[in-house]
Amino acid sequence: MTKDKNDAPQNPTACLIIIGNEVLSGRTQDANLAYLAQGLNDVGVRLAEARVIPDVEAIIVKTLNQCRKAHTYVFTTGGIGATHDDITAEAVAKAFGRPLLCDARAVKALEEHYGDRLNDARLKMAEMPEGAELIDNPVSHAPGFHIGNVYVFAGVPKIMQAMFDGVKHTLKGGAVWRARSLSTDLTEGVIAGEMALLQDDHKDVEIGSYPHFKDGRLGVALVVRGADAGAIDETVAALEAMVRAHDGAVFEDPP
Amino acid sequence: MTKDKNDAPQNPTACLIIIGNEVLSGRTQDANLAYLAQGLNDVGVRLAEARVIPDVEAIIVKTLNQCRKAHTYVFTTGGIGATHDDITAEAVAKAFGRPLLCDARAVKALEEHYGDRLNDARLKMAEMPEGAELIDNPVSHAPGFHIGNVYVFAGVPKIMQAMFDGVKHTLKGGAVWRARSLSTDLTEGVIAGEMALLQDDHKDVEIGSYPHFKDGRLGVALVVRGADAGAIDETVAALEAMVRAHDGAVFEDPP
């Protein structure tokens, strides 16, 4: 990668805050980061940072306030359910210095779904900071919300994905970055020198080199990213020629 | 979770810094966090935070310096290969204000493995901050290193796991936290109130409630964590009785 491009990014940036002891304990594998990152790529927003933090109010408030100043958009996942360990909505309210209210529109959505089964615990899922806008939840009906540049999603991947899909096209992005990749059975040590020269010659794109271990041997995936499809194609062709000149196998799809 | 326990944790804490545009772009799914977290649990160290950051030197240096002050241990993954975009070792040297040197022990390990195929690009993998200690790499031979409380691992999971396993038992941990869990087909809204009372009655443990979406319907996994196996067993039994009182199914293993 060229450092200048990353030090002065043209596109709006985003930060994902994954709130959850279940991820930090190793019990649950996060599945939301990759989905969010790919969706943001589609609309020209760059995921610049992600953090995984515990269900501790002071840490959530501090992290939110750091990240919402540093990035165009902040997304949170986790901690908006009905139980005692779901403290995200309250922490977001504290970060914004707003009261936590039981939102009438959210109560209505829950009433329509739960009917007589709507109880105090479920009503907790209608609490959000004053002035928040609802994010629709077509899966399990308890809405997410956004306030300022912060978007608050559920942690369950199917629900998170539906919530993100509902707001994705309201985000204001920049140029859409694309990527193409090729894989080879050569190792990085063989091609590193020439790849660095190729990066110097193709400054409009970012060349990433990602080793992998497959069937007992190392290989590498070369990924070219940028906003200019022509420059990407040209760089991929140059990388492919370089790999073939070393008698390396070329696989179109990375493993 | 009880807030007091998390605000004043007894155990040493750790932070994982995942360095890699390939994770932030959504191309690669991180597989190191869960492995590290579970291994740290075994030795009484609590993974308190994780961050995913891009391959940008200034960001790596700043993040390292924040995290190594805030936590007992810091682990990094990614960016220690042979190519132009591998800048972790140099960033760690800058964070510690030490020169980056070609380490004689690392050169020897690479010479033994590569022989005549050792070139300038591969020698880059022997560079580390002055005063660093090597971390053995039984998979692909280019070592990791640690300096102060920072442990620098490769990003390829098989290599990262071997490096972590090599240093794991040198870490100084506290009480080992254990976890037991049960799953039910009840939803959080049904059991949230009673679960909060159970948490109040069992302050030595942390009760987590994690909804999941399976076969088209919501269910929940209840996880009890703590250092006292007796208190965990007692709490799990109380949760199970509570679920059964609501005619909920109980599954021993979480999905």
From TrEMBL, chains A, B:
Residue stretches making up the MoaB/Mog domain: 15-175
Gene3D superfamilies the record matches: MoaB/Mog-like domain
Domain of life assignment: Bacteria
InterPro entries given in the database record: CinA, FLAD1_M, MoaB/Mog-like_dom_sf, MoaB/Mog_dom
Protein name, UniProt field: Molybdenum cofactor synthesis domain-containing protein
Natural source organism: Varunaivibrio sulfuroxidans
Lineage of origin: Bacteria, Pseudomonadati, Pseudomonadota, Alphaproteobacteria, Rhodospirillales
